[in-house]
Amino acid sequence: MASLKELRNRIASVKATQKITKAMQMVAAAKLRRAQEAAEAGRPYANRMDRVMASLGAKVGMDEGAPRLLAGTGKSDVHLLLVATAERGLCGGFNSNIAKLATKDISKLLAKGKQVKILCVGRKGYDVLKRDHASRMVEGSPIDFKSIKRIGFTQAEQVGRKILSMFDEGEFDVCTLYYSEFKTVVEQIPTAQPLIPVKIGDETGEPGANGAIGAEAAYEYEPGEAEILDDLLPRNVMTQIFRALQENAASEQGARMSSMDNATRNAGDMIDRLTLEYNRSRQAQITSELIEIISGAEAV
Amino acid sequence: MADLFRFELVSPERLVLAADVQGVQVPGSEGDFGILVGHAPVMTSIRPGILEVTTRSGKLKKFYIRGGFAEANPDKLVVLAQQSIDVEELNKSDLLQEIRDLEEDVTDASNDEQRTKAQFALDRLKELESVLAL
Question: Is B34 helix (H, G, I), strand (E, B) or coil?
C-alpha cells in the first residue's frame, strides 16, 4: 500500500489537474459560443453562393467549354486531400476522427491505384498523417494558423489561393476537403467534401420551392455568364474552405468542452477514491500504533 | 414615399445589412447602376467601390465593397461582397496614417513574405482611398 505521503501528493496533483481541466472547459465554452456565432453568421453568404453557383452551373452546363474548376480536368488520377484540423490537442477525438477518415480514404484511393497528395491545415492532423504518408505531403504543409486568434476570410483566401495555383499548374485533378461538421456540442461529424470539381445539383433543393427557379431562367448576366462564373468559381472554393474552417473552429471548441468536462469529472472521482484510501490507511496506521502501545504496556 | 424592396448585403463573415430600402446604387463591373423596386432580374459582378443605399426613411448609407456580385430580382437585391466597410466608420486621417504605416512596413520588411503581405494590404488601402476620394 502506498504511504500516506505518496497518497497526499497524488491527491494534490490530481486536484491541480482538475483545476486545469475545469479552466480549459470554461474557456472552451466561452470560445465555443463565439465560434458558433461566427459559423452561423457566415451561413447566409455560403448559402447564397451555393444557390447562385447552382443556377449558373446549370446554365453553363458541363460541356466542353465549361471552366475546369467546374467540370474538372476530365481525369481523376491525382487526388489532393485538404485536411483541416486544429492547432491544439486536448479536444477528445476531434483531430483523430478527421485524420482517421482521411486515412481511410487515402488507403481506398491508393488501392484503386490513384496518386494521393495531402495538404494539411493545422498542426495536429499533420502530425498524425505524416507518420504514414510523409512522402505524400505537399510542400508548405501544414499551413498553420497558430498565431491567429480568430479565423477570418483572409486565412481561407490564403489556403484557397494555394489550392488554386496548384490546380492551375495541373498538380492534381480532384480535391476533397476534410473537416468536422458542427452538429451539437457533443456531436461533431468528420466530413469529406468535394471541392474541385465543384459539385452542383442538390444544393438548389426542390425546384420551385421558393419560386426562384422559374425567375432565374430570365436573368440577365453582366458581363456574361461565363465571365461571372470564372469570377465566381475561385470565390466559391474560398467560401467553402472558409465555411469548413469555421465549422472546424466550432467543432474543436465543442469537442474540447465536452472532453474537458469528462476529464474534470474523472478527476473528481479519482480524488474521492484517493481520499478514501488515504483516510483508510491513516486509520489503519493509527490502529496499528495503538495496538503496539497497548501490547507494549501489557508486556510490562 | 417610394416603394420598398428587400436589400441584403452579405459578407463571408456576417450579414451586414438586411432591410427594406427605397433604392440602391451598385458599383457594377460594367458601370454603376441604380436599382429600384421592380428591377428586371440581373446578375453582375462588382468592382471595388461605394455602394449607396437609400433607406426606408430616405437616408443615404454608404458602404465600401470589394469583390463579389449582385443579384437583383423585382422584389429583392442581394449583394455578396468579399469585404464591406461602412463608410461612416472610416476616418480619412486614420486611413492615411495606416497607409503611411504600411508603406514603412514595406520598406522595413526583413523578408519577401512580409513585404508581399504588407504590399498586398497597402494596395488594398490605396484602392480604398482612391475610391473614397471620388
Answer: strand
